[in-house]
Give the backbone structure.
Amino acid sequence: EEDLLDRIAIRQLNDYAISKWTGEQQVLNSADMHNTETVRVRPLNCYGPHEHYSAFRGVIPIMVYRALKRIPYTVYGGHLRVFDYVGDTVKTLANIVDNFIPGEAYNIGSDESWGVDIKTLSDLILEKTGMDESIVTYAPNEPFTTKTKIVDLSKSRRDLMHKATINLSEGLDLYIDWMKKTYL
Protein backbone atom coordinates (compact mmCIF):
# COMPACT_ATOMS: atom_id res chain seq x y z
CA GLU A 1 0.00 0.00 0.00
CA GLU A 2 1.18 3.49 -0.83
CA ASP A 3 1.22 4.73 2.78
CA LEU A 4 3.44 1.90 4.06
CA LEU A 5 6.60 4.02 4.18
CA ASP A 6 4.69 6.73 6.06
CA ARG A 7 3.36 4.26 8.65
CA ILE A 8 6.31 1.92 9.16
CA ALA A 9 10.02 2.67 9.24
CA ILE A 10 11.53 0.27 6.72
CA ARG A 11 15.24 -0.29 6.40
CA GLN A 12 16.22 0.21 2.79
CA LEU A 13 18.24 -2.82 1.70
CA ASN A 14 20.52 -1.30 -0.95
CA ASP A 15 21.79 1.99 -2.37
CA TYR A 16 19.15 2.04 -5.12
CA ALA A 17 16.33 1.72 -2.58
CA ILE A 18 17.94 4.43 -0.45
CA SER A 19 18.13 6.78 -3.46
CA LYS A 20 14.42 6.28 -4.21
CA TRP A 21 13.49 6.85 -0.56
CA THR A 22 15.69 9.98 -0.46
CA GLY A 23 13.98 11.33 -3.57
CA GLU A 24 10.60 10.92 -1.93
CA GLN A 25 11.86 12.70 1.18
CA GLN A 26 12.98 15.62 -0.99
CA VAL A 27 9.53 15.81 -2.57
CA LEU A 28 7.88 15.77 0.87
CA ASN A 29 10.30 18.43 2.14
CA SER A 30 9.53 20.65 -0.84
CA ALA A 31 5.82 20.35 -0.17
CA ASP A 32 6.31 21.25 3.49
CA MET A 33 8.95 23.97 3.11
CA HIS A 34 7.74 25.69 -0.05
CA ASN A 35 4.08 24.73 -0.10
CA THR A 36 4.49 23.03 -3.47
CA GLU A 37 1.84 20.69 -4.78
CA THR A 38 3.42 17.31 -5.30
CA VAL A 39 2.55 13.77 -6.24
CA ARG A 40 4.84 10.82 -5.61
CA VAL A 41 4.83 8.00 -8.15
CA ARG A 42 6.44 4.61 -7.77
CA PRO A 43 6.76 2.89 -11.13
CA LEU A 44 7.36 -0.78 -10.55
CA ASN A 45 9.74 -2.67 -12.85
CA CYS A 46 8.85 -0.64 -15.91
CA TYR A 47 10.50 -1.95 -19.10
CA GLY A 48 10.26 -1.57 -22.84
CA PRO A 49 11.80 -0.20 -26.02
CA HIS A 50 14.48 2.47 -25.65
CA GLU A 51 15.73 1.09 -22.36
CA HIS A 52 19.31 0.45 -23.35
CA TYR A 53 21.45 -2.23 -21.81
CA SER A 54 23.66 -1.44 -18.85
CA ALA A 55 24.95 -3.68 -16.10
CA PHE A 56 23.06 -1.34 -13.75
CA ARG A 57 19.64 -1.67 -15.42
CA GLY A 58 16.75 -3.84 -14.38
CA VAL A 59 16.60 -7.58 -14.76
CA ILE A 60 14.78 -7.57 -18.12
CA PRO A 61 17.30 -5.43 -20.06
CA ILE A 62 20.17 -7.38 -18.54
CA MET A 63 18.73 -10.82 -19.34
CA VAL A 64 17.50 -9.92 -22.83
CA TYR A 65 20.76 -8.30 -23.88
CA ARG A 66 22.88 -11.10 -22.48
CA ALA A 67 20.68 -13.80 -24.01
CA LEU A 68 20.87 -12.11 -27.42
CA LYS A 69 24.66 -11.78 -27.10
CA ARG A 70 25.12 -15.23 -25.51
CA ILE A 71 26.67 -13.68 -22.40
CA PRO A 72 26.21 -15.65 -19.15
CA TYR A 73 23.98 -14.27 -16.42
CA THR A 74 22.77 -15.33 -12.97
CA VAL A 75 19.20 -16.03 -11.91
CA TYR A 76 18.55 -15.66 -8.20
CA GLY A 77 15.83 -17.79 -6.64
CA GLY A 78 13.18 -16.63 -4.23
CA HIS A 79 12.23 -13.37 -5.97
CA LEU A 80 8.74 -12.57 -7.24
CA ARG A 81 8.00 -9.52 -9.41
CA VAL A 82 5.44 -7.81 -11.60
CA PHE A 83 6.72 -6.00 -14.68
CA ASP A 84 4.89 -3.05 -16.25
CA TYR A 85 5.26 -2.35 -19.96
CA VAL A 86 6.38 1.23 -20.58
CA GLY A 87 3.31 2.07 -22.70
CA ASP A 88 1.02 1.26 -19.78
CA THR A 89 3.18 3.20 -17.33
CA VAL A 90 3.27 6.30 -19.55
CA LYS A 91 -0.52 6.34 -20.03
CA THR A 92 -0.95 6.32 -16.27
CA LEU A 93 1.64 9.06 -15.74
CA ALA A 94 -0.10 11.20 -18.36
CA ASN A 95 -3.36 10.88 -16.44
CA ILE A 96 -1.82 12.72 -13.48
CA VAL A 97 -2.21 15.97 -15.45
CA ASP A 98 -6.00 15.75 -15.36
CA ASN A 99 -6.29 13.95 -12.02
CA PHE A 100 -3.71 15.74 -9.90
CA ILE A 101 -4.28 15.19 -6.18
CA PRO A 102 -1.56 16.98 -4.20
CA GLY A 103 0.19 14.90 -1.59
CA GLU A 104 -0.76 11.50 -2.97
CA ALA A 105 1.61 8.62 -3.63
CA TYR A 106 0.84 6.11 -6.36
CA ASN A 107 2.18 2.65 -7.09
CA ILE A 108 2.22 1.97 -10.83
CA GLY A 109 2.75 -1.58 -12.03
CA SER A 110 1.19 -4.38 -14.00
CA ASP A 111 -1.69 -6.48 -12.78
CA GLU A 112 -0.89 -8.13 -9.44
CA SER A 113 -1.93 -11.53 -10.84
CA TRP A 114 0.82 -11.26 -13.47
CA GLY A 115 3.60 -11.77 -10.92
CA VAL A 116 6.38 -14.17 -11.93
CA ASP A 117 9.47 -15.53 -10.28
CA ILE A 118 12.77 -14.60 -11.88
CA LYS A 119 13.44 -18.13 -13.16
CA THR A 120 10.13 -18.08 -15.05
CA LEU A 121 11.08 -14.69 -16.49
CA SER A 122 14.46 -16.04 -17.56
CA ASP A 123 12.89 -19.13 -19.14
CA LEU A 124 10.52 -16.91 -21.15
CA ILE A 125 13.38 -14.69 -22.33
CA LEU A 126 15.50 -17.71 -23.31
CA GLU A 127 12.59 -19.17 -25.27
CA LYS A 128 11.85 -15.88 -27.07
CA THR A 129 15.52 -15.24 -27.92
CA GLY A 130 16.21 -18.83 -28.99
CA MET A 131 18.92 -19.27 -26.36
CA ASP A 132 19.26 -22.29 -24.11
CA GLU A 133 19.83 -22.20 -20.38
CA SER A 134 23.49 -23.14 -20.65
CA ILE A 135 24.31 -19.42 -20.23
CA VAL A 136 22.38 -19.25 -16.93
CA THR A 137 23.81 -19.84 -13.48
CA TYR A 138 21.25 -20.43 -10.74
CA ALA A 139 21.90 -19.08 -7.25
CA PRO A 140 19.99 -18.82 -3.98
CA ASN A 141 18.06 -15.64 -3.35
CA GLU A 142 20.01 -12.44 -3.68
CA PRO A 143 20.72 -10.71 -0.38
CA PHE A 144 19.91 -7.04 0.17
CA THR A 145 16.97 -6.82 -2.17
CA THR A 146 13.23 -7.07 -1.76
CA LYS A 147 12.05 -10.64 -2.23
CA THR A 148 8.54 -9.81 -3.47
CA LYS A 149 7.60 -6.72 -5.49
CA ILE A 150 3.88 -7.00 -5.95
CA VAL A 151 2.06 -3.97 -4.58
CA ASP A 152 -1.42 -2.57 -4.14
CA LEU A 153 -2.44 -0.64 -7.27
CA SER A 154 -5.97 0.30 -6.21
CA LYS A 155 -5.22 4.04 -5.86
CA SER A 156 -3.61 4.33 -9.28
CA ARG A 157 -6.55 2.44 -10.78
CA ARG A 158 -9.08 4.62 -8.98
CA ASP A 159 -7.46 8.04 -9.42
CA LEU A 160 -5.29 7.63 -12.53
CA MET A 161 -7.26 5.01 -14.48
CA HIS A 162 -4.23 2.74 -14.50
CA LYS A 163 -4.73 -0.42 -16.47
CA ALA A 164 -2.12 -2.95 -17.50
CA THR A 165 -2.93 -3.91 -21.09
CA ILE A 166 0.35 -5.42 -22.32
CA ASN A 167 1.18 -8.66 -20.51
CA LEU A 168 4.73 -9.83 -19.94
CA SER A 169 4.86 -12.15 -22.95
CA GLU A 170 3.59 -9.46 -25.35
CA GLY A 171 5.84 -6.81 -23.82
CA LEU A 172 8.90 -9.04 -24.07
CA ASP A 173 8.18 -9.63 -27.76
CA LEU A 174 8.14 -5.85 -28.37
CA TYR A 175 11.23 -5.26 -26.25
CA ILE A 176 13.23 -8.12 -27.75
CA ASP A 177 12.42 -6.87 -31.28
CA TRP A 178 13.71 -3.43 -30.31
CA MET A 179 16.83 -4.91 -28.66
CA LYS A 180 17.59 -6.94 -31.80
CA LYS A 181 17.32 -3.85 -34.02
CA THR A 182 19.46 -1.86 -31.60
CA TYR A 183 22.22 -4.35 -30.74
CA LEU A 184 22.40 -7.03 -33.45
Notes: The chain has a mean pLDDT of 92. The beta strands are 40-43, 46-47, 73-76, 80-81, 84-85, 105-108, 116-117, 136-139, 148-149. The CA atoms of residues 13 and 145 lie 6 Å apart.
